[in-house]
Amino acid sequence: MARTNRLPTLDAPRGRSRVLTPRAPQPSRDRFGRFTEWVARAMGTPTFLVSLTLFCFLWMGWNSLAPDTWRFDSAAIGFTALTLVLSLQASYAAPLILLAQNRQDDRDRVQIEQDRQRAERNLADTEYLAREIVALRMAVRDLTHEVITKDTLRAELKAALDRLDEHDDNARANAPRSEAARGDAHRAAP
Description:
By secondary structure, the protein is mainly α. It has helices at about 30-45, 45-65, 80-145, 150-175, 180-190. The chain is elongated.
């Protein structure tokens, strides 16, 4: 059987076959973290404590007051099964709570970094505004030390009007002569 040399084409990405099979959806990596936080929040509520207390009382009451054939934990040996169940619950609760605390620490670390950056920006903005206020104060002080009288203002306005008149005179001098002169020049052209 002859081996065909397949050259890469531009119609498909490199390293992939022509038929792309859909990938199975990946479970969220954050799902377990959210679960640990849910457990930590649930265990820190009065509802959980009341429920656990009721569970223990029901367990002990059932195993103390029920007929001997229905009992599954002996009060004579100190409710060993209850002790094991509570130990198992505690052995799973502690690491889950620690994982939730680690996630919270990570979030707090990011928040602290963002707060630090925001504080630096605020400090830079405040310093900039302080410099601008000082510059404005200095400019106002300079203006208040120079007394602008009516005569000074009139002289400045007269100088500005003279410059405008000169500009208008220059514009008229450089403008084309007249429409008739333009028309004559246009007709003389071949």
